[in-house]
What does this fold into?
Amino acid sequence: MGEAKKLALLGACALLVYMLWHGTDVHQTTEQPAPTRHVQEHDAQTEAISETADGENADAALSVPASATTEWEESFFVSSQAEEAVEMTIGNAALIKNETHYEIDPSEIVRSGTGIRLNAGEPQILIIHTHSSEAYTQAGLDRYEESDTCRTEDSEHNIIRVGDELARLLEEAGLNVLHDRGVYDYPSYTGSYTRSGSAVEQYLRDYPSIRIVLDVHRDALGTDDVIYKTVAEEEGTCASQAMLLVGTDESGLEHPQWRDNLSLALYLQNAVLHAHPTLMRPVAVVPQRYNQQLCSGMLILEVGSSGNTMQEALAAIRLFAQAAAPALLELVE
It folds into this structure.
């Protein structure tokens, strides 16, 4: 066995042990097929920022827990020594991955549904990208000039293209969608949440009918020697997995409606899993807010990881939209 493959196997085993030790054991209401590689974990190396009590970035530091002063960051970068991405299907056995100390009963939240409603004939959904330059592993015709590892300013090859596809599919289904294709992580990555948050606030002022905001990202999973790609085991397609992330007020910063965000996330999660049982990773519930205090229907949507290709990410967002759009249409009044 080659050295790279040995390291890949060791990495996968380490993640599996961590999942078994820390995973949230909340089973879904529908039976899920067993994954080939079941790793229920999502680590993130985060970038420190200072944040005021109302959530706006400031130069002055605030005396809050260290976990409160962080931005959503890639966990690892792709190593040039990694021969190929190791496939894994993450966490179909649980509805959530709870990284807070809050007690959460996801099954009860699913039964209760979401209180979010969409106004017919008005803008309903905003799609935005805080980390607009996030890109995927280059493959086939999907080649681009890197601005950093697995990043590019070319909107045809970064996460903005995934947002284009999501917006198109939701609009075709009959929903009213605005897609912000602005770049918020360049030239400086630091402060990207400040910039995207300001944009969201302006949209909410200009279009008060917006009830759902999806901040679409791509994830990154791996080590210096191994990079992982998420795989949805859906027949007839080669797709990555996707994941919804919900922030809370556990960091000490005000976020009173985080349970509303969680109810929407689980509402969508449940709808997608019924159609595509392996597409979604567990909903990540974390201490930080990530601008989600701005709207009671604001979520982060991670589509694939840096080990996936653009085509795998596009396949995933098509499956997601196919199942999520009918569920969203049920919220229209």
Remarks:
- The first strand starts at residue 47 and ends at 48.
- Residues 3-41+77-329 form a domain with the Aminopeptidase fold (CATH 3.40.630.40).
- The two ends are 59 Å apart (CA to CA).
- The first helix runs from residue 3 to 22.
